[in-house]
Predict the structure.
Amino acid sequence: MATGVWLVGARGSVAATSIVGAAAIRAGLAEPTGCVTELPQLQGASLPPLGELVFGGHDVADTPLAKKADALAAAGVVPARLVAAVAEELAAADAEIRPAPAVATQREAAALVAGDIAAFRDRHRLERVVVVNVASTEPLVQPHPAHDDLDDLEQALGGTTPVLPPSSLYAYAAFTAGCSHVDFTPSTGARLPALAQMATLHGLPYAGHDGKTGETLVKSVLAPMFAMRNLRVRTWSGTNLLGGGDGANLADPGPNAAKASSKQRVLAETLGYEPQGHTRIEYVDDIGDFKTAWDLVTFTGFLGTSMRMEFSWHGCDSALAAPLVLDLARLTAGAHRAGRSGALTEVAFFFKDPLGTVSHGLAEQWAALAAFVRGLGDA
Amino acid sequence: MATGVWLVGARGSVAATSIVGAAAIRAGLAEPTGCVTELPQLQGASLPPLGELVFGGHDVADTPLAKKADALAAAGVVPARLVAAVAEELAAADAEIRPAPAVATQREAAALVAGDIAAFRDRHRLERVVVVNVASTEPLVQPHPAHDDLDDLEQALGGTTPVLPPSSLYAYAAFTAGCSHVDFTPSTGARLPALAQMATLHGLPYAGHDGKTGETLVKSVLAPMFAMRNLRVRTWSGTNLLGGGDGANLADPGPNAAKASSKQRVLAETLGYEPQGHTRIEYVDDIGDFKTAWDLVTFTGFLGTSMRMEFSWHGCDSALAAPLVLDLARLTAGAHRAGRSGALTEVAFFFKDPLGTVSHGLAEQWAALAAFVRGLGDA
Amino acid sequence: MATGVWLVGARGSVAATSIVGAAAIRAGLAEPTGCVTELPQLQGASLPPLGELVFGGHDVADTPLAKKADALAAAGVVPARLVAAVAEELAAADAEIRPAPAVATQREAAALVAGDIAAFRDRHRLERVVVVNVASTEPLVQPHPAHDDLDDLEQALGGTTPVLPPSSLYAYAAFTAGCSHVDFTPSTGARLPALAQMATLHGLPYAGHDGKTGETLVKSVLAPMFAMRNLRVRTWSGTNLLGGGDGANLADPGPNAAKASSKQRVLAETLGYEPQGHTRIEYVDDIGDFKTAWDLVTFTGFLGTSMRMEFSWHGCDSALAAPLVLDLARLTAGAHRAGRSGALTEVAFFFKDPLGTVSHGLAEQWAALAAFVRGLGDA
Amino acid sequence: MATGVWLVGARGSVAATSIVGAAAIRAGLAEPTGCVTELPQLQGASLPPLGELVFGGHDVADTPLAKKADALAAAGVVPARLVAAVAEELAAADAEIRPAPAVATQREAAALVAGDIAAFRDRHRLERVVVVNVASTEPLVQPHPAHDDLDDLEQALGGTTPVLPPSSLYAYAAFTAGCSHVDFTPSTGARLPALAQMATLHGLPYAGHDGKTGETLVKSVLAPMFAMRNLRVRTWSGTNLLGGGDGANLADPGPNAAKASSKQRVLAETLGYEPQGHTRIEYVDDIGDFKTAWDLVTFTGFLGTSMRMEFSWHGCDSALAAPLVLDLARLTAGAHRAGRSGALTEVAFFFKDPLGTVSHGLAEQWAALAAFVRGLGDA
């Protein structure tokens, strides 16, 4: 039996790249480069095969996936020949995309979303479905008393004033439909006490937050390097220039604050202190999907000697994110199958702002991930 | 009882910085920044305290240590106030530096060197002495049949034709004197079958090769990052600009080849394949002790998308090396005390070109090092 | 007869570096590196000699110049041996620094300042005095009707509500005292119609704005390069990290906006269109006087091919500014002596935001400067 | 009447990009971005219109131009849609490409080449033809006595031992056919006394050497910046990583030396002294046509303060070169029409290693170029 991947933001760049890629790899037209779960150290019968994933989702946009994929090909994110070769699969996934529901209460909206997901599962006789949030980043959410308790939340959802941000409403709907959940964005998603209760109650696992694709990935190996060498980092200042839809959204002060805060967490937690400097995100339309990040690190060595390091990262965010979305869908489905519920802290490897109290060093996260996959057995 | 550190190249930049630093830290005038063995995770009673190291050594130069330290202060490598504050300790170490012996056969030279070391040990009633090579890099050595067997070597040393490169002759002398040995350079040192036999025979540990201070340190965390993310590195090309005595020496084709080969090893062994590109070393007198390295990495991600990363590293080699020299002296003395003999493969963390078949990823090397220190116990 | 240089902000980093440098060069202890007016192409009898400048000024701070110079030496901006060698000259200049006047109306304040300057001129029997603003950058000024007409301004200055920003009040005082004026900062200074009238009326020249020391200097040669090659710049995004007093001030939103706007002007005026991207200024205390700027330029070439350039600039702002302050004092005094009055548009070479409608390309500015110096004759 | 452009190396990347681009611009499918002679300041009736150039040439390769253009499109150098749109023009140019002659003496070879060119001119009733060398770089040439005198050369060409390098033989053939000549490579071309005599004798102009497309272009604006600011450049060290056919060729020690020497000339001649450091060229197949250059510049400012600048240039060499080839063909044809003969020193703007004793600063070169175009009149 196949596994479903229900993408919130299913017509965005990351979703489209994931769907094109999964189809191209299944057809033998591309290597699974960038897919961590295809590395020998992580392979095992416990994860649903990459070739057996079925895609659907929600999106407010109605541009067809095929058109989105053409735009990605024009921008150099995916090869045009692959887009052409998987046209049929794109059309099939597109037919499984539903609009965001427009109803009076969030309770009704959640019920409709959960219904869409359940119908998708039934229609394709899927063993299970993983809901993955790849929608635009939300502003930092306002706290609300009903966020802390599931009973209060259930009640509040019946009112006409929205109580949950969209990302959390989708997580609520996923749990209602008996599905696990992955948040690939810095949005709130399942990160509320009431939703944690719900996941445990329903025996469902969830993972997050904020896919670690570029600058923060590099930070998560460089910061431990300085720490292991007992060198004192004084300044760590970063500039991120990015275009595309994600860039335009992150240039808004709200989402920008959410993202920048997520990006600096690795430093304080790895080094044990917070160096000077900030991370800045600037939207530059012309840069498109290829983000450029520049970081300056100044540090002190033996007897106080000042030294410095700079790096530039020029990466395609969608191409870096898409294989990780496939990885996380497989890992979360595998965890669900193995009976795991609650926060999957062992997949911190994939996230800028991981759940739980975990190491931010990439190597320790890798070791935790490998142990996790082994622990899922060969069920 | 104190521990001796016998530096081959005792009047060079790295040696002088190490001696100034050890004295300054002992006097409470400087923090042990850059000293790995001072990190909480590695502390333990099994290592000789940093404050109980006594320094001596050999050098062909006769510029006094105090003068060398003044030059380092002028170049910004060490603070002038620290050099002034430890003048007495510098004079004491300087009084323990012996010239390279000038005699007819290498056997006689080794005996004289061993005698110098033993006299140093007796004079200071040292528990033991670690011999550390911080001299200039030698050209790649010509193979010689006597390198493969200790008996053959003993015999060949009696001839008037030199059979060992200087770095190996010092290792031979160290073992003769019952001392452990560290090679902080890419030179041959103890890395010959005959010398390995000798170390085992005498129950002596040795460590090496080529201190990992800058560009290669960064490589040893970035290369595993690409590997863990299943990204395909296509090109890794590096340029090293360095001045000072080490730079002038490395600009010679012989030592340059030795160094550059040592620097690329981490890539092939971490990635499992060799990307395109080379590492170039250029001598630029004006740059002095502050080395600038620039690396370009191009890599392929999901569906073949091309991406790239660049980094610049601007570090002071002597300031990066000196604390590691102190670390290695302490670790090797601790291993000697605990009865370890032969190649210390567990200290690969410190080296570009480590002994044995070991991981080149910094995080795995760190784990091995921590386990090693724990294993030495609290004897 | 000597020429006076009256520095507004006389105890700041730029002022102190200028005074130390002028004294050191006069004493033959340093080369005039960085002094443009010492280049063969610009030398001539029309400018007062570097060695005959006499320094005084105003400052709200009361830290003695000698102490400021010691701090600059500790930070690596000036050599400690030079500071020690010119202690007498520093004390002499320090004795000529007056506090900012604290009185009821701006008219009274201007009269006191003008009196201080005139007394300085008389005391030293100076041929003339140039007033140079090297104080901290002000926020963008609020327009006021009295800014547009000298008569209105004269009247408004008598009220108790301040009508001029401090930088402009000093320019007013300079003109009152019969002195020429240079604004080395982005502040308003003499850049008001009423003050332009006043300069013309009194036959006084003035120059400005905002010394071009680092990133913008580079822009002023790279932007013409792209223009001359008919390459289309798409993005030009800059990040400036700086510490020191100037950095802390520029991190305030007000001065930051003034500075950033001044920095982008060169692009629009050289290219003929405004590329995407912004210039960001971040205060990082640890970086001190050595600023790091990073710029990314993306551009389109033949048939639409996308290309890119990045540069990092690591410069000491005070060391870059100080020789230009000396140059401008000499050039403005020379213009004054030659009977020039009003805006000196020919010294645009020195400024980010030059007066008048002038080329922003460095080479054209250089040609204009050379012609200007030749035009001053050998009087 | 139209003007012919005879490309030596007519099936290489630069030639193919030039031909595609000229056709696309003529058809109104692309802007003349990168074409300097299309800037308003340089336009005039004295140059043959871009749309009236007719292409032919010699090449040892027999891959059709259309196939080469497809490869360039796949590599991202030119848009595939443009290649498709100009298929007819590519085929027409391809039909005008002749193989290199294989005969016993260089005299015979030159006669055959000249015959090919003359036939091309007649067939298309061209007003005149410009021969442009865009072939691979040759090794530095061995001096030969016959290089110094035209009579000696004419005689030596009759022997069976080659006396001229291929680039010079083509220049000789061009002059024989009454055509002007441009050398876009660092090869010898017309740069021999005997050939200079020949050009003057026949009343023919020639231009060269080595198109200034990337790193050296940037040097030619940055080096004057340091000079104009009286800053002392200490080190200028460059690394060029390039792939493609040009890269493979330049990795050979011979051509590499020719190129690297051409690249450093700008520094010594602009600064008036030679800073430390070298330019290195490394061939990295994976990088393809997009070259990456990294330069480190260290410099000294006021009172000896050390500062630094780094830049990375990521440019497509063929896309940067092609519009300049079109520019040079137009300019040289215009000069020929206007009766100019001998070395065209006024087009130094385009070259790394320009003919004659000229400024290496880009702005002065630009001024010389603009004056040159104006001087050609509107004939």
Observations:
- Residues 3-211+319-375 of chain A form a domain with the Rossmann fold fold (CATH 3.40.50.720).
- Chain A has 13 helices and eleven strands.
